[in-house]
Design a protein that fits this description.
This protein has about 475 residues and is α/β, with parallel strands linked by helices. It folds into 2 domains: about 300 residues, Aminopeptidase, CATH 3.40.630; about 140 residues, Roll (Aminopeptidase i, Domain 2), CATH 2.30.250. Helices cover about 25% and strands about 25% of the residues. It has a 9-stranded mixed β-sheet. A 7-stranded antiparallel β-sheet has the order 8-7-11-5-6-10-9, covered by helices on one side. A 3-stranded antiparallel β-sheet has the order 12-13-23. The longest helix is centred in the N-terminal third of the chain and has 20 residues. Bound molecules: manganese (II) ion (2 copies). One manganese (II) ion binds next to α5.
C-alpha cells in the first residue's frame, strides 16, 4: 500500500463539510436556517421560546401531559414548567423502562436583567438599573440598541407581558459609553473592568412631565406612560422579570451567506434543531424527549434549571403511566446535551489547541468533556457511549467533528450534561461551534446548524 492509501485508511480524516455535502443538502440547509432565523427573532427570551415551542408543538398534535391518562406509542405530550422550561415527548414503541432518548438544550441567554427597583432619574434623564445575567463581557453592551422583554406579575394574580423594541416602529433603549475625547482615565482600565456592572445603566427617557413645582418629572412621565400602557406602578417592578436583549434581527453573514449572525445563538442554535427534530419524530422505537431548559447560563440552578429534580419528576410521570420504575428507565437512558462549543477564531487562535478545536463548517461538534483545569466539573462521557454516537453519526452521513473548549488551563465552561449524568443517564455534549460566544451578536455556520438538526432527529427517532 502506498503512503497515501495508508494515510487514508489510518489517519483521522476530517474535511470541511461544505466540500463533502450535496447541492440538495445545501438547499435543505438553507431552508432549515430560514426557519431558525425567524425563531431567533421571535424567541429572544426563555419565556418567548417556551411560548413558541408550545404553539408549534400543539399544531403538531402535542397535548399537555395529564396524570392518570393512558398513552400509547406515537402519542405526543408536553410539560410546561412555569413558562420557562418545556419538555416535549413522543411515546415510543418500547416501554419507558428500556430508556429514553433525551435531547437537552437551553433557551436562556446572557443579557441584562432589570433590578427589582430599577427606575430612577439623574440630571433629568430617565434610567434603569440592571444586573447582568450570565457570563457577559460588559464592555460589549454599551451603544447596542436594546429591547425590553418579560412580565410584570401583579398582586391580583394577573400577568402583563412586555415586548418593546422588536418592531421597526418601536422605541429602543441603550447603555451609554464615554466619548474617546474624555475616556483617557477609563481607557487605562483593564478590558474586564472597562465597563463595570453598576455602569450598565439603560437610558429610557428624557421628557419631563409638565409641572413647575415637582422633582423627578422625567421619571414621573415614564411611569405614567407605563401605567397607561401596562396598568403598573413603580412598586410592580418588585415582582417583574424584565430582560434587556439586543434589539437587532438575525441575518446572513458573508458574501456567500454561509453563516448566521444574531443574538442568543447560545443556545437557540441547538434548541431550535432539538425542537424541530422532536416535532418531526414519528412513532420512535424508544420514548423521545426534547427539553428546552432555563437557567443554564447561571449554573442550571432553580426549579426551571436542569439541576432541579424537574427532569426526574416528568420522566417519572411518563414511566408511571406504564407502571414502571423511573430508576430503571434512567439507567437505560441516553442523552445528547445540546449546547454550543467555541469555534476556532481566525484572529484569536492562540487560546485554542488547534488539533482539538471545533471549526465552522466542519459539522456538529461532539464534546466528550467540558470543565476547567483538570476537567473539574465535567461529566466526561464514557468511551463506550461516544463510540455509539460516532456510529450513529457516520451511519447517517452526518458531518461531524470533535471539539474541546480552548487550550488546557486557558479557561473552561460547563453545560447541562453533568446534571443529567448525575441522574445516572449516559450523556455527551453535542452542538454547534460559535464565534463571539456570549456577545450581543454571535456567529454560526449554517451547515453545522443543519447537521445539528439531523443528529437530534436520528437520535430521537431511532437510527
Ligand atoms: Mn450554552
Ligand atoms: Mn453559554
Amino acid at each position: 500500500m502506498t503512503a497515501k492509501e495508508l494515510k487514508k485508511n489510518l489517519f483521522l480524516n476530517k474535511k470541511n463539510g461544505l466540500l463533502r455535502v450535496s447541492e440538495e443538502e445545501i438547499a435543505e440547509t438553507e431552508k432549515f436556517c430560514a426557519g431558525y432565523k425567524t425563531f431567533l427573532n421571535s424567541a429572544k427570551t426563555e419565556r418567548e421560546a417556551v411560548i413558541t415551542a408550545v404553539s408549534l408543538a400543539e399544531k403538531k398534535g402535542f397535548v399537555p401531559f395529564k396524570k392518570g391518562e393512558k398513552y400509547t406509542a406515537g402519542d405526543k405530550v408536553y410539560f410546561n414548567n412555569r413558562g420557562k422550561t418545556v419538555a416535549l415527548a413522543v411515546i415510543g414503541k418500547k416501554p419507558c423502562e428500556d430508556g429514553f432518548n433525551i435531547t437537552a438544550a437551553h433557551i436562556d441567554s446572557p443579557r441584562l436583567d432589570l433590578k427589582p427597583n430599577p427606575l430612577y432619574e439623574e440630571i433629568e434623564l430617565g434610567l434603569f438599573k440592571t444586573h447582568y445575567y450570565g457570563g457577559i463581557r460588559k464592555y460589549q453592551w454599551p451603544t447596542t440598541p436594546l429591547s425590553l422583554h418579560g412580565v410584570f406579575a401583579l398582586k391580583d394574580g394577573t400577568k402583563v407581558d412586555v415586548n418593546i423594541g422588536e418592531d421597526e416602529s418601536d422605541p429602543k433603549f441603550v447603555v451609554n459609553d464615554l466619548l474617546p475625547h474624555l475616556a483617557a482615565e477609563q481607557s487605562k482600565r483593564t478590558l474586564s473592568d472597562g465597563i463595570r456592572g453598576e455602569e450598565l445603566n439603560v437610558l429610557i427617557g428624557s421628557r419631563p412631565f409638565k409641572s413647575d413645582d415637582e422633582s423627578e418629572l422625567v421619571k414621573l412621565n415614564i411611569i405614567k406612560i407605563l401605567n397607561e400602557k401596562y396598568g403598573v406602578t413603580e412598586e410592580d417592578f418588585l415582582s417583574a422579570e424584565l430582560e434587556l436583549v439586543p434589539a437587532f434581527k438575525s441575518c446572513d453573514i458573508g458574501f456567500d451567506r454561509s453563516m448566521i449572525g444574531g443574538y442568543g445563538q447560545d443556545d437557540r442554535v441547538c434548541a431550535y434543531p432539538a425542537l424541530s427534530a422532536i416535532l418531526n419524530v414519528d412513532n420512535p422505537e424508544k420514548t423521545a424527549v426534547a427539553i428546552l431548559a432555563d437557567k443554564e447560563e447561571i449554573g442550571s440552578c432553580g426549579n426551571t434549571g436542569l439541576e432541579s429534580d424537574f427532569l426526574v419528576h416528568i420522566l417519572g410521570d411518563l414511566v408511571k403511566t406504564e407502571g414502571g420504575d423511573v430508576t430503571v428507565a434512567l439507567r437505560n437512558s441516553r442523552c445528547l446535551s445540546a449546547d454550543v462549543n467555541a469555534g476556532l477564531d481566525p484572529t484569536f487562535q492562540d487560546v485554542f489547541e488547534k488539533r482539538n478545536a471545533s471549526r465552522l463548517n466542519y459539522g456538529v461538534v461532539v464534546t466528550k468533556y467540558t470543565g476547567a483545569r483538570g476537567k473539574a466539573g465535567t461529566s466526561d462521557a464514557s468511551a463506550e457511549y461516544v463510540a455509539e454516537i460516532r456510529e450513529m453519526l457516520d451511519k447517517n452521513n452526518i458531518v461531524w467533528q470533535s471539539g474541546e473548549l480552548g487550550k488546557v488551563d486557558a479557561g473552561g465552561g460547563g453545560t447541562v450534561a453533568v446534571y443529567i449524568a448525575n441522574k445516572g443517564v449516559d450523556v455527551v455534549d453535542l452542538g454547534v461551534p460559535v464565534l463571539s460566544m456570549h456577545s450581543p451578536f454571535e456567529t454560526t455556520a449554517k451547515l453545522d446548524i443543519y447537521m445539528c438538526y439531523r443528529t437530534m432527529y436520528v437520535f430521537m427517532q431511532g437510527e
